[in-house]
Design goal:
Number of helices of chain A: 7
Shape of chain A: globular
Strand content of chain A: 5-15%
Radius of gyration of chain A: 18 Å
Helix content of chain A: 55-70%
Strand order of the largest sheet of chain A: 1-3-2
Oligomer: homodimer
Distance between the termini of chain A: 57 Å
Number of strands of chain A: 3
Mean pLDDT of chain A: 90
Chain lengths: 159, 159
Amino acid sequence: MADNNTPDGAWNYCSNSALKRASRQLGQLYEDVLAPSGLKITQYTLLTQIKLGRETPLKLLAEAMVMDLSALGHTLKPLQRDGLVEMVADEHDRRVKRVRLTQKGNQLWSDTNGLWREAQARFDAAFGKDASENLRRTMDLIASPGFAAAFSGTRQDQD
Amino acid sequence: MADNNTPDGAWNYCSNSALKRASRQLGQLYEDVLAPSGLKITQYTLLTQIKLGRETPLKLLAEAMVMDLSALGHTLKPLQRDGLVEMVADEHDRRVKRVRLTQKGNQLWSDTNGLWREAQARFDAAFGKDASENLRRTMDLIASPGFAAAFSGTRQDQD
DNA sequence: GAAATTTACTGGCATATGCCACTATATTTA
DNA sequence: TAAATATAGTGGCATATGCCAGTAAATTTC
């Protein structure tokens, strides 16, 4: 029987592509579980982040998502269109827009939460609970500004 | 000084979103290094896979990339347009198309290889050589068909 | 305080990815 | 072998993401 534990003939020497392949597959797996909700896993993640953020400015939301500000704007479009999130102007700085869930958004989030838990539980079961937590920590490290600085050779701890 | 090792206020309990954030950041980092070549890191990865595949059928290439077949087709478009890759019909099965690098594609790949090595070296330096290899192995596991089966609760080793 | 600069967002354009419907070919069934 | 089914790709549509060039509003300079 063929080796079923490695993507068929994939070029496994690039850390970036390894991460991308894993990310595509995992996204697919979570997506399938969330399907009944009508939300993509990306959207669910975004809603969660917005919910936790309590009217976070777009800029900060983008940073938390490790995403380009304009990309975030685009990604929010369908959610706004569907009435799940809405923008509110900042009272002090008129350049700033804050995002929050609408009533409908909150409702859908709640309805979808169980599905996300299910997906996460399956992941933990297949990957191992501890390994899972460990993985998230590792991913957070790679996603951190500090790592980007280290990668780019920028020194930082001294301002 | 604020904690600089965690994306600001990110919801870190979802393995999928953790992976996505890391993937976005890492992609960005590699991208910056590859920039002089004019190739996106995704494209470089694809060219490499095609180069290694020696006229692989699209289907197999898609599997190796853990990517949807049609998505692969779309992603190849710009590369075909720019004359980096070309399709050749399979001699025995007329449904099958095989992809290969053109002379130009091979040239650009070679010219870009050094940049990729540089990016990979920076990653290894920032993340740790051993940890890096370890990470790739972990990512390969998550990207494997076996993991998908385990996640989905499908039994497989018994046919 | 007016001019220069920085900051937060938007809109247009391009690539990355996935789903679905459809076409052309093979392969399997009856 | 004709019909049913499976396989490999394509094209259209939708979301995901990033870059760049504005625009508007705040902050810093002189």
